Amino acid sequence: MGTRFDIACGRLPEAVLDLNFADAHPGLSHEQAALEADRCFYCYDAPCVEACPTGIDIPRFIKAIASDNLAGASRTILQSNILGGSCARVCPTEILCEQKCVHTAIEANHAVRIGALQRFATDWQMNQTAHPFQREKSTGRRVAVVGAGPAGLACAHRLAMHGHDVTIFDRHDAPGGLNQYGVAAYKLADNFAQKEIDFLMSIGGIRFQGGAVLGQTVTLADLRQSYHAVFLGIGLSGVRALGFENECVEGVLDAVAFIETLRSSTLSEVPVGRRVVVIGGGNTAVDAAVQAKRLGAEEVTLVYRRGAEHMSATPVEREWAQTNGVTVRFWASPLHLLTDQGAVQGIRFARGAPEGGYDPQDSFTLEADMVLKAIGQVFVPDPIQNDQILVENGRIVVDANGRTSMPGVYAGGDCTAGEDLTVAAVRDGRDAAEAIHTELMTTSVEKDANNG
Amino acid sequence: MADLRTVFAGIKSPNPFWLASAPPTDKEYNVRRAFQAGWGGVVWKTLGEDPPVVNLSSRYGALGFEGRRLIGLNNIELISDRPLATNIAEIKRVKREFPDRAVIVSLMVPCEEDKWKAILPIVEETGADGIELNFGCPHGMSERNMGAAVGQVPEYVEMVTRWCKQNTRMPVIVKLTPNVTNILMPARAARAGGADAVSLINTIQSVIGVDLDAMAPMPVVGGKGTHGGYCGPAVKPIALRMIGEIARDPTMAGIPISGIGGISNWRDSAEFLAMGAGSLQVCTAAMHYGFRIVEDMIDGLSNWMDGKGYARLDDVTGRAVSRFVPWNQLNMKFRTIADIDQDACIGCGLCHIACEDTSHQAISKRNGPDRRHYEVIDDECVGCNLCAHVCPVDDCITMVPQPVDGELTWPEHPSNPHRITA
């Protein structure tokens, strides 16, 4: 067991860091996109569309790329999913649209590269000056959106499009949520999250208010008073703990916090251990492990308590970790942390399985300067606990239109039940916006009728 | 191993694959490379009178489809733009060096007997195996009363053919233009004039596309475009029809036909032979991929013939002609029904939507848990084949012929008001 406590910044020269955090999968060239688009069979009632939570008309936009109608292609994408650019980058397409592509029935793993084509089309749009959608005449209705992540942004954009005035509240100084703070940097390289938000906001009618903490600087009760409707896209603000007494020693971090630091700082100023152990089996675990490696960690080990097939990170993500030099170990659960003078030195794991239990007698130790916990995020209901909104199984309960149990309050994204995917959050926000719009316009008609 | 040796109107070649009169056969350098690659013969690019014509810059326009290049090609190039003496000297050298290959010289001079009388001995002196009369070029030359301007007037075709037959011992092949309403008229005229063979099709008059920035037809020459001659894989169906019409015409019986029009591979070649061609002329495929394409044409045709037990080309030539009939000789009792191989189906829905929107609503759709399920409604299926054609999976949809109870053609059909009654 080594005694050195080795966490440092700037393990790699800046030029190397820039390279390591550049676009993981650069966009298609015009020729590549044309060739790939021509592979699409233009299926009728295409299975890929059904597999997309936002229901993008995929064959249509690919056909548009094939005919060099990029304005039509990007508009088709963005009218279903205004964050189509980041979804093209972060979506696990291998378990969504591309998994259902009929090409896979001819040859496994040879789906049309829908994600890459979507990126090609939306990248084109990002380089245009004109916004593809126009804001309707102002309705005079005000909506508060809490949380500037994918759900909140999608909701705000759709509401603004319909002519409502939207204020987005977020605890961070900048909007973006997980896109800005929670996803691996190389997935949204070149400041894409910010560029996309600028594009989205350019529709007009959206105001961003940062530094607003729900339940503290702003309450739901206030918002209900000042706005005609409220949308909650507040995500999962809690992270699960390992449950060890000495968990707060130096070197033991939440993976979410580690990634947020990385996304908000200059790369050369992000501290990383020489030997890093990541605990967890999801995308956050993979993002943390690979980024730690790319920051210059010598050894990164990802330990998951179950088998490869149980990981919530997709096989593509797992392979990405492995090809980046991350050692992945399965069927082991943390037993205890080894510490010295308030700093972590290593972590001991017991082998086993959740069903049969983990055997403390059958264990191994990994030396570590840094332990990143990525064993799940949880919804923290504190900000709304005085508001009597129904919460079940740790998530806000909503109906098919995103309505919570409280009139005029809607919710969507990770804070509600369903897949914790960016693209699902976008759908939730968009659909809630449509429901809010209908409600607000119906109310308006009724009021007019009463006045008349 | 099938015997591909060809004797066409007395002209011998080691295989039926000739390069058509076009840019690939414009000069010794190209022809030499073609023969080295294995081509059985060439029709040397059309010779004319001196002074030679002048060609433009920007000569081809191409049609692509869903990512594939050059399914159609159009050109506005004229005949050889090199001095006659240069061509003659080169033809002579090449023929001497490759005596086993067919060297046919394409000719086009004004419609005056003296002009033809003058050029024929010069060509004959090269040792060429035959001549092909270019009555087909549909652009540029036709505006000077040559090429298609001759080919479109059966009387001229007959007249010029006769002049040539009377003034040379070389076999005369008459190349026909498809830019006519009835191909039999010029074909019969050629035979009446004594033609030893016909070749077809020459290119089709076309505008290949419009440059939407220049707002001019393509290819754009200094801001303007003109119509050109269309060829390539997309014209094959037109060629097959015209060749078949000549092959089955009793007045044309026995005339050798050199098939031209989009031949790109051995399968196309076999189809042209089956419809009556005795030799095959290729251009676009070579212009797309180079002379090496002949290797698979020879090899593929030979393998296919071996598989079918056809020993010689004569066993194939014209084999489908007796079954190329007018519509009213088809059996109206015949019925075929689509069948979807559910194991091969990938669930793309193209068969369904094609049938539903544009045909007979004969393919049902059901969304299963894993994939969409499409099924043929036998009673609604008219056997049109559309589903089988749009299906992207080979052999997933097959057309299954149903048992036939006798034969009934339109002339005898009860619904025919003019039916033949006993």
Any overview of this molecule?
The complex is a heterodimer of chains A (452) and B (422). Chain A has 452 residues and is of the alpha/beta class. Chain A has three domains: 97 residues, Fumarate Reductase Iron-sulfur Protein, Chain B, domain 2, CATH 1.10.1060.10; 168 residues, FAD/NAD(P)-binding domain, CATH 3.50.50.60; 139 residues, 3-Layer(bba) Sandwich (FAD/NAD(P)-binding domain), CATH 3.50.50.60. Helix content of chain A is 37%, strand content 19%. In chain A, the strands form six sheets. Chain A has a five-stranded parallel beta sheet with strand order 4-3-2-5-19, sandwiched between helices. In chain A, a hairpin with a 2-residue loop joins strand 17 and strand 18. In chain A, helix 14 packs across helix 15. Chain A is globular. Chain B has 422 residues and is α/β, with parallel strands linked by helices. Chain B has two domains: 318 residues, TIM Barrel (Alpha-Beta Barrel); 86 residues, Alpha-Beta Plaits (2-Layer Sandwich), CATH 3.30.70.20. In chain B, 29% of the residues lie in helices and 21% in strands. In chain B, helix 6 links the parallel strand 9 and strand 10. In chain B, helix 3 crosses helix 5, helix 5 runs parallel beside helix 6 and helix 8 crosses helix 10. The longest helix of chain B is centred in the last third of the chain and has 16 residues. At the A-B interface, helix 2 and helix 8 of A face helix 11 of B.
